[in-house]
Design brief:
The chain is of the alpha+beta class and 225 residues long. The chain is built from five helices and eleven strands. An eight-stranded mixed β-sheet has the order 4-11-5-10-9-8-7-6, sandwiched between helices. The protein has a three-stranded antiparallel β-sheet with strand order 1-2-3.
């Protein structure tokens, strides 16, 4: 199976410092991200995934194959997304605002922006998954973008969001282009995910140079009491 078909699993196996679990199932540490994955749909793997979810917890599963739900877990939300790959060299675009590197000092603002705009699961230490950059306007964090899942040959562009006060200025496009260009400069291929319902984001990424690869299944799994 192509690593892109189970990108969460591929990423977790190459980031042991951010993960917990074993060779059957893994999840990100609870302050890093909510994604989890079984390595396959075998009985042992699904049982291991179940054991990684505590009572009252939920995890996100994202993959191309249909999602098999382990006994003892239930789907509380489900949706479809698209997985897109960079189809050509992506040029770095320079917008009106200077691009700044984001780090530990910016963590509270990054988390607040993500909670406001909901670009996907974003927790206190999600920023440690890769490089994050932002655009500041009048001292405020107006937009950001970064890297999330990473495995040999591929890095995901993620966390792309713009504060409502600053939309319509092309900030998401500028920051996405900077991140994607840097990934390509390392000799890797950028990929990303978007909800199928978010046609505006899909159109933006197509203009940047991404193309559709596959539909992905997304589910939030919770543990039965």
């Amino acid at each position: 199976m192509n690593s892109l078909d189970r990108p969460v699993w591929a990423s977790l196996t190459h980031a042991p410092h951010l993960a917990e679990g074993d060779d059957f199932a893994r999840r990100y540490r609870r302050d890093v991200n909510l994604f989890a994955s079984a390595c396959d749909d075998s009985v042992n793997s699904l049982a291991a995934l179940h054991d990684l979810v505590r009572e009252g917890e939920s995890v996100f599963v994202l993959q191309v194959p249909a999602i098999c739900v382990p006994d003892g877990l239930v789907i509380t939300r489900a949706a479809q997304g698209v997985q897109m790959l960079a189809a050509r060299p992506i040029a770095r675009e320079d917008g009106d605002c200077a691009v700044v590197e984001l780090g530990e000092a910016d963590a509270p603002e990054m988390l607040a922006l993500a909670q406001l705009t909901e670009p996907g699961p974003f927790l206190a230490r999600t920023r440690t998954m890769g490089r994050f950059i932002g655009a500041r306007i009048n001292g405020r964090l107006a937009a950001m973008a970064g890297e999330r899942m990473r495995f040999p040959g591929y890095t995901e562009v993620s966390g792309v969001c713009t504060h409502p006060d600053f939309r319509g200025r092309g900030l998401a496009r500028t920051l996405s282009s900077v991140i994607a260009n840097a990934i390509q400069q390392r000799g890797e291929q950028p990929f990303l995910h978007a909800w199928t319902s978010n046609q505006a984001a899909i159109a933006l990424y197509e203009r940047l140079g991404f193309e559709f690869r596959s539909v992905v299944q997304v589910a939030v799994l919770g543990r039965l009491a």
